[in-house]
Amino acid sequence: MHRRSFIAATLVGAATLAGCAPRWRVVTQANPDPFVGQRYFALMPIDFVNLRILDEPEDRFLASKDADEHRSFVSDKASIDEEFAKELIAGARDHGIEVAQVSNPTSGPFVLRPYVSYMNPGYYAVVSSSPSQIILTLRITTLDGKVLDEVELSSRTASPNPKTSLSRADADKLTSGGRWREDARIIGEAASNYLASRVSP
After folding, report:
1. CA angle, 70 as apex, 66 and 72 as ends, to 5°?
2. Alpha carbon distance 90, 96 (integer Å)
3. Neighbour count for residue 41 (Cβ, 10 Å)
4. Whether the predicted pLDDT of 34 surpasses 80
5. Which pLDDT band, with edges at 50, 70 and 90, does 193 fall under?
6. Measured between alpha carbons, how far is residue 182 from residues 117, 148, 198 in Å?
7. How far is the C-alpha of 42 from the C-alpha of 9, rounded, in Å?
8. pTM
């Protein structure tokens, strides 16, 4: 087993024990499987269209924020896209699959199109806390946009106790952006596993 795969398996096992294991829900799936043996997929940036934060549309959520909070949220979305792509690409590579980031796919038979529809920042307080959450839909389409597979993936990340000795990674989870980045990494790894399950069933 690759070292990365071993680490991922360990993390997934720990997440399962904590009750926050990454998972996917199949919405639709092409049959017969058209991806068997495929070794190249194009990856589009995450689309945040119709995003809801907690129980509000994104524009209403941002309307109550000041300029600095608005900039921070825009930066958080960019880092979610970056971390998701890094984990998906690296995880797919471990399975012998090349995933290439593109802004406008022009080659290759299949395109990965991720959409984030829901985000919850979570919080930490002395007496209570709530985990963050990201729900992402991944569609695998033909070059012209026909949907072949669609799965929904989600992750929840709890805030660590700031009174304990924290690693840099754990300290990052004290912020909403840090929790979302962790969610994005977990979902990216899960997405690579889903892709591998279709390429090598």
Report:
1. 120
2. 10
3. 23
4. yes
5. very high
6. 17, 28, 25
7. 25
8. 0.84
Tokens matching residue 53: 């934060």
Percentages helix, strand, coil for the chain (3-state, rounded to 5) are 40, 30, 30
Least confident of 9-23, 69-83, 162-176, 183-197: 9-23
- What's the token pair of residue 145? 């946009």
- The helix (H) or strand (E) run that includes residue 69 is helix 67-94
- Is the pLDDT assigned to residue 88 strictly greater than 80? yes
Backbone angles phi, psi at 134, to 5 degrees: -130, 135
What is residue 111's three-state secondary structure?
strand
Give the whole-angstrom CA distance, residue 164 versus residue 112: 40
Terminal CA-CA length for the chain: 18
For residue 47, give the DSSP letter: B
Q: Residue 109 has what pLDDT?
A: 93
Nearest to 99 by CA among 201, 3, 1, 194: 194
The Cα 89–Cα 99 span in angstroms is: 5
Spatial contact of 27 and 154, defined as CB atoms under 8 Å apart: no
Cβ atoms within 10 Å of 102's Cβ, excluding its own: 16
Q: How many CB atoms lie within 10 A of CB 1?
A: 9
